Structure formats: C-alpha cells, structure tokens
Give the backbone structure.
Amino acid sequence: MKYFTSDPVGLYDSEITSCIPAFAVEISDEKYLELIAGQEMGKRIMSDGSGLPVLMDEPEPTADESAAIIVAQQTYLRTVADNEIAWRQDAVDAGIATDEEMSDLTAWRRYRVLLMRIDTSDIQNIIWPEPPKK
C-alpha cells in the first residue's frame, strides 16, 4: 500500500517501510507512480489543500532568492579563482613558476577582478566573465 502525507510532504510504501505516520492518507499504486515520475521530470509534489497529492511546477524564484543565487554563484566562482591564483602565486614566490604558470596567474587575476566588478543587483543583465582554461 502507498501513502501520502501533506505536512511534511512525503510518500511512503508499506513494502519498504513500516514507519508510516498515522495521519498519512492511502493513495493508489498508479497515483504513487505518477507522483514519482512527475518528480523525476522536475515537478514538485504538493498537497491540493484537502490533503491529497498533486504535481505542481516548481515556483519561479522570488527576487530575493534570485539575488541570493547570483551572490552564491559569484562567491563560488571567486573561490575557484582564489584557489587557482594561490598555488600559482606560491610558485612565483618560491621562484619556481614556469612561464605558463605566470601567464595563467595573470589571466586568473584578471578574471577575478572582472568577476568582482559584476553588479549583482542587476540580475537580468549579468554577463559572467569566461574563466581561464585550467
């Protein structure tokens, strides 16, 4: 038997687990498979308000969520650049950098500057700089 809970949203299969909340509602095998297939296609399983499961499109991110995603992406890319710069700078400082490493160091520093100049408040018009080849 298959079950659904609306809060928290969950699907349960009695053949897999015996830990099924008392407030879970029974659903058909067909509905269960439909929900799993929909989730695999990027849909979200939600409650229809009466406690039954429905598939919904993922909501578009809010402006604040979009801004947070952009800042997180910038932070991640900055971390990548910092890591690429650090070991090349170590090679320069130790006097053992190759010509290629010194050239790459310059390219990564340029990339990092361009990355940090991005206006993250202008979400619609962000053009991410192309990172140097690793």
The chain has a mean pLDDT of 96. The radius of gyration is 25 Å. Helices lie at 29-40, 63-93, 99-116. The beta strands are 2-6, 9-13, 25-27, 44-47, 53-56.
